[in-house]
Amino acid sequence: MEIGTPHGPGRVEIDDPGSAGLVLLLTHGSAGGVDAPDLLAVRDACVADRIAVARVTQPFRLRGARAPGSAVKQDESWVAIASVIKERFPGLPIAQGGRSNGARVACRTAKEVGATAVVALAFPLHPPGHPEKSRVAELRGAGAGVLVISGDRDPFGVPDEADAERLVVLPGENHDLRKNPALVGAEVARWLVARR
Asked: What CATH number is attached to the domain comprising 60?
């Protein structure tokens, strides 16, 4: 379904196992889509554990933009989409997350949305080759428990353990987390179920 936002429509694909105890809003990175292998693996593992998953294609991707643009506009769009999803699942706790840029959006908006947990896949700690431009404040400011899953070969860097409730560093993985997406999904589902 499409959901209107102040910056154009976003698209949401919901997988609801029925009798869900939690809803996970999940989004893509700057250049990818909601069918990335790690996002699909997260969806599959979560649905198997009775967590409803709403995969969100952000408005900038629907417009065909190559870059996300303003963080303020992304965040405003995300909050608008999250409010509609919350209405669809009244009374259920909301978790949110994404990969790369989507993880940044999830961290920045967690307080406003009222998310109980944040899943940050391949959180881009800094631009490649520029560790001095750290984005760690976004992780620390989420206001909810954060699970970070990163590859040890990620050129965007890997946060410290102190920067998240749980940090999983996968050996041999790069920024795309494509070597073992099922493991990524299992880690996310296990963490979310333990927090319910």
From this structure: 3.40.50.1820
Give the side-chain half-sphere CA count within 13 A for 134. Answer: 10
Q: In degrees rounded to 5, what are phi and psi of residue 189?
A: -60, -45
Cα distance between residue 5 and residue 81, in whole Å: 7
Whole-prediction pTM value?
0.96
User: Tens of pLDDT along 128-138?
Assistant: 999 999 999 99
- Per the structure block, which two tokens stand in for 156? 């965007």
Task: Check if the beta carbon of residue 85 is closer than 8 Å to that of residue 94.
Answer: yes
Which tokens hold the place of 152? 């040890």
Looking at the 3D structure of the chain, how many domains does it have? 1
Please list, in sequence order, all residues whose beta carbon lies within 8 angstroms of the beta carbon of residue 117, skipping any fewer than 6 positions away. Answer: 95, 96, 144, 145, 146, 147, 191, 192, 195
CB 39 within 8 A of CB 80: no
* Residue in the block written with tokens 């699970």: 147
Domain of residue 37, residue span: 2-195
Contact present, 166 and 187 (Cβ < 8 Å) = no
Please write the tens of the pLDDT for every residue from 38-50: 999 999 999 999 9
